[in-house]
Amino acid sequence: MTYDFIVVGAGPAGTKVATRLANSRAAPKVLLIEGGGNMSEPKDRLLFDRWTTFMEYPRLKYDYYSEPQKSLGDRVLPCTSGKGLGGSSAINFSAWTIGPKADYDLWAKLVDDESFNWEHAQRRLKAIERYDFDLDTEYQGYSIPDRNVRGTDGRVNIELPTIWESTVIPQLDGFVAAGWRLNGDLNNGFPLGIGALPSTSRKAIRETAASALLEHVPSNLEVLTDSQVERIIFDGARAVGVESNGKQYKASKEVIISSGSVNTPKLLLLSGVGPAQDLTKLGIALVSDVHGVGSNLQDHYLCCLTYELKPEASDWTQLPKGEAEMAAARDAVVKKRSGPLASLTNLLVMGYSQDEETLKSAEFAALPPAVQEYIRDPTVPTREIITHNPSLVPGVDPDKYYLCVVTLGMVPQSRGRVFITSTDPFVAPHIDLGYCQHPFDRRNMVESLRATMHDMEHPKLSQFVQKPWRIPKSDSDEDIWDFAKGDIASGYHLSCTCKMGQETDDMAVVDTKFRVKGTQGLRVADMSVMPFTPNAHTMAWAYMIGEVAAEKLIEDYELDK
Q: HSE-up of 62 (CA within 13 Å, CB side)?
């Protein structure tokens, strides 16, 4: 079985690469091979389930766990990753965040290639998006997307719901009263402020990379599921195919790995691409000594502040109570896009801030001048917040109602790594997140949580609260950090383990054409290539990485001529 191109991994990046190649004028023969299955039915994609899908659908995830985190009292944290058609877009929170203008320009600067800057990113994102601007007049003062830069002709549906939960506008007004700026378009490159965030969805049904891009595929694109790739096949240093389930699939042109920031370095290492000293110890034949494979791991870390709400302050009182009633409500969403579940949890209240206390800290002053300059850019946040129901924290009273204010630390400075200690492709890799090992990250988490606690004390927000349910004992540094050590979890934005860099960067794994160092016919296209974790949820970035990689492949092979 021989193809022109083989793409490994059907998440947003891999699916984008595969479909763009297959739909090019030359119509090359493309194989998209995915380790998981297909669960793309609307009943499995209710946006109502956005917070719990990754827990309730075990077939849709790799259940990975971190190494004990030294800065967090040796806690072991889940590092869940998407599995199946759509990848993590099938289990994430469906947040469509583009991030700061400065992030794109920094990417271009670090790799010395202007094609990654903000101007080019806007063009690519516009081509991806199918934005629905239809919004009731009562909401239009809170959401003002720029129609000149938002796309309407792409394949990925993006929307704000037709009906907002009744708590959304009071929350937005409350945060504005507490000092936040209302931001009517969090995706205009200037995300600072509080706003209503659009989701990848269509009428209360989640949009995944599979539903957006794989429902109608050309005959020259083959999609193979339940086929975990066990190794890349090389002829010398040239990638010529992949092996899965005892079968070999050959590529006459290129193999593109899009398996994510954990599984991509794992597959490269198993195939002989990585640090020579590590591979030699495992008896893996060396193809290319690439020091950076698995290194430079970055992620956003988060904490949940949980408040018990007054019953009148939650729309969740409308939630069907019995199994039969819940089943009927789910059916109403699938068949009619109606009922209580068609509006619950369909909108995210999200905010980004650049907190002055963090910037005044000694930990910030100790950062390199170039890093300080970047963080001070007026588009770059140090904190993100999201408010939502239900609580992400276990142990709540099922007969009461809660608000969880998730606080994420942005601009992380700590670094971790992904590594293997077994040559068995079905053994999980080791993931050392390295959370909060850098003093700046600890300081930023403390200041971010303190700022969020103070926000929630404002009368316009505290009026909805019955009592705090799980927050730090006080706003002292000691109490906040003691709380954070026991609460910090992954933002599931793992990135940078096969980072892109200039030729002089010894830790770079790929160049600006996504080609893996020391090899031929092998590229990587997913969040692992990022030089740093962007200050946003990473789904939009993954789609865009797929778009850029496809552009470069199409140009190199003249597929559109």
A: 28
**pLDDT tens digits, residue range 386-440?**
997 666 677 888 888 899 999 999 999 999 999 999 999 999 999 999 999 999 9
Fold held by 1-64+88-135+209-292+493-561: FAD/NAD(P)-binding domain (3.50.50)
Q: What is the tens place of the pLDDT at every residue in 98-152?
A: 999 999 999 999 999 999 999 999 999 999 999 998 888 889 889 988 888 899 9
- Tracing tokens 């985190």 back to the chain, one arrives at 69
Answer for the pair 469, 307: CB distance below 8 angstroms, yes or no: yes
In the chain, domain spans: 1-64+88-135+209-292+493-561
CA distance 15 to 32: 7
Q: What is the pLDDT of residue 391?
A: 63
For every residue of 196-248, DSSP letters joined together read: EEPBSEETTEE--HHHHHSSS--TTEEEE-S--EEEEEEETTEEEEEEETTEE
The answer to whether 493 is a known catalytic residue is yes
User: For residue 7, what are the contacts with CB-CB under 8 A and spacing of at least 6?
Assistant: 14, 17, 18, 21, 30, 31, 32, 33, 256, 258
What does the pLDDT read at residue 314? 81
Which of 300, 388, 438, 493 is flagged as catalytic? 493
| pLDDT of 392 | 67
Low-confidence ranges of the chain (pLDDT < 70): 346, 389-392
229 is an annotated ligand-binding site residue: yes
3-state helix, strand, coil in the chain (%, to 5): 35, 25, 45
Strand (E) or helix (H) holding 249? strand 247-257
Helix axes 118-128, 539-556, angle to 10 degrees: 100
